[in-house]
């Protein structure tokens, strides 16, 4: 299991370095699946180039990035061809409903359970937490993003006892549940 939950993606050098470590291969050889589905309003759409640039600045070639907008499911065999799935921010409830309505939920969770790597940004992170009904159930507690301060830094005991607050420079790194959960900031 390799999941990175963030407010703003690869916002800091520390988060970028952890991303490359969790990717586990030379980024020049990596294939990414970019999911912009949550970007439903002008503000979220305006951030999409920054999100795409997160992958490119780490060294993933543009031709190795595929865009998938969740109008249908994707087979587990097809999704396994990707080394990372990047879930963009925007409207959390819309993203979660598309994941559940298309059947992508089972595909995504199978991918994660098979050691697939997922990075969530804002809404793409919140879908894994207890914020909304029908969430993906990775975290039982609520997750807050874009907070002024991160409330927990370092190793996190699982199951989580308190809600987690992430600043724009923080990331929750989930390498295994229960066990290897850590929050980094700056």
Give a written overview of the molecule:
This protein has 186 residues and is α/β, with parallel strands linked by helices. Helix content is 30%, strand content 23%. The protein has six helices and ten strands. It is globular and about 40 Å long. The two termini are 23 Å apart.
List the helices and strands and how they pair.
Elements: E1 2-6, H1 13-23, E2 32-35, H2 42-57, E3 65-67, H3 76-79, E4 84-87, H4 92-102, H5 104-113, E5 117-121, H6 123-126, E6 143-147, E7 154-155, E8 164-167, E9 170-174, E10 181-185
Q: Would you count the extended β strands for me?
A: 10
| Shape label | globular
The profile of the biggest β sheet is: 8 strands, mixed
**What low-confidence regions span 5 or more consecutive residues with pLDDT below 50?**
none
The percent of residues in helical segments reads 25-40%
In DSSP terms, counting alpha (H) and pi (I) runs of 4 or more, how many helices? 6
Assembly type of the chains comes to single chain
């Amino acid at each position: 299991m390799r999941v990175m939950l963030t407010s703003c993606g690869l916002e800091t050098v520390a988060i970028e370095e952890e991303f490359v470590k969790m990717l586990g291969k030379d980024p020049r050889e990596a294939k990414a699946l970019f999911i912009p589905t949550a970007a439903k309003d002008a503000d979220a759409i305006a951030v999409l180039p920054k999100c795409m640039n997160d992958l490119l600045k780490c060294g993933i070639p543009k031709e190795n990035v595929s865009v998938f907008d969740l109008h249908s499911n994707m087979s587990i065999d097809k999704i396994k061809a990707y080394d990372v799935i990047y879930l963009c921010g925007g409207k959390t409830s819309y993203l979660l409903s598309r994941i559940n309505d298309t059947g992508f939920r089972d595909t995504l969770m199978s991918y994660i359970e098979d050691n697939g790597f997922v990075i969530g940004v804002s809404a793409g992170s919140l879908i894994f937490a207890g914020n909304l009904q029908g969430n993906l159930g990775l975290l039982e507690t609520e997750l807050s993003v874009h907070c002024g301060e991160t409330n927990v830094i370092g190793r996190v005991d699982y199951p989580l006892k308190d809600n987690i607050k992430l600043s724009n420079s923080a990331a929750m790194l989930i390498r295994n549940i229960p066990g290897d959960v850590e929050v980094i900031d700056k």
